[in-house]
Design goal:
The protein is α/β, with parallel strands linked by helices. The protein is built from ten helices and 16 strands.
Length: 310
């Protein structure tokens, strides 16, 4: 049975959305073939957007980081981050007071861009919280996991306020078989402890997709959602978000979803991508329709497409 390469599938779409971590880059650096992939997308005249749940750094720093990795095919306006969605909420809903946050100084740039005062939770005085008007979970680094996390819990117990999760990811891969807790995982723990509901931004929330979609229409005119392909490595964020937004979805196995468990994860979650990409190795990439009983295992079939066709 013949299986099409990425380019054969993507050729039918005018717009390509891609996740960042797990698709464009991973814990080792750039995913093999990604430069060639993006060059092909651009050479075919397709629009491109990078949709990332990474709120740890601004658009500008995201672009700088990609350049440092050797990826120069992405432009600033093509990067859409969950931090931008949190920034938009703050601009629309918070007009005074200070915004407390959990994360790094770099991640706080999203708050700084709103013009609001901001303070890391480590500097909050729990006996004087009247001027704290909102709280944002921005990053899983930049604070003490013991004292600052406990202070976060106690702050949110003492004063009702809007709480924003700028990155809804629960975990992220740091090695082939290992993951680390992400900002969304910390926020979910606090939600459960306090029996509260926070405002989540990032995939699978549709706001990031709508933000990218509206930007495309301002740039290109009307864009049919049927002409958009979302490429991601995580069922619960990239694929679910794309499905909810009504665009076609492609699952790749370069990040959170593993070759050995992909069928089980799809079956147990009920989240079904339109296409499933199995990255065998540097010799080839195969693409198959999800749900096909004749799925390709990780390296049983080779040479179906060259690495440049990712």
């Amino acid at each position: 049975m013949a299986y099409p390469a990425f380019s054969q599938v993507a050729a039918h779409f005018k717009v390509i959305f891609m996740d960042s971590y797990g698709v464009v880059k991973n814990h080792k650096g750039l995913v093999d073939g990604v430069q060639q992939t993006l060059r092909w997308i651009k050479s075919e005249g397709k629009a491109f957007r990078l949709l990332t749940n990474d709120a740890s750094r601004s658009q500008e720093l995201q672009l700088k980081s990609l350049h440092q990795l050797g990826l120069h095919e992405i432009e600033l306006h093509e990067i859409i981050t969950s931090g931008m969605m949190a920034k938009q909420f703050l601009e629309l809903k918070i007009s005074s007071g200070k915004v407390a946050y959990l994360g790094t100084q770099n991640s706080a740039e999203y708050i700084a861009q709103t013009g609001l005062e901001y303070v890391p939770v480590s500097e909050v005085d729990l006996d004087n919280v009247d001027d704290i008007s909102a709280f944002v979970f921005l990053d899983d680094e930049g604070f003490d996991w013991n004292t600052d996390f406990n202070k976060t819990v106690n702050l949110l117990r003492r004063k009702p306020m809007p709480v924003i999760t700028a990155n809804s990811d629960i975990f992220y891969p740091v090695a082939k078989h290992d993951v680390a807790i992400a900002t969304g995982g910390l926020a979910k723990l606090v939600e459960r402890m306090l029996n509260k509901r926070f405002i989540d931004y990032g995939k699978p929330d549709s706001q990031m997709f709508m933000y990218a979609y509206e930007g495309l229409m301002a740039e290109m005119g009307f864009v049919d959602r049927k002409d958009i392909l979302m490429v991601g490595d995580t069922l619960q964020t990239d694929i679910l978000g794309g499905n909810k937004f009504g665009v076609k979805t492609m699952l790749v196995l370069t990040g959170n979803t593993r070759v050995e468990t992909v069928d089980l994860e799809i079956a147990s979650s009920g989240i079904i991508p339109d296409f499933n990409v199995s990255l065998c190795n540097s010799e080839g990439i195969s693409v198959l329709l999800a749900g096909n009983s004749s799925r390709i295992s990780s390296c049983q079939r080779r040479g179906l497409a060259s690495p440049r066709d990712l």
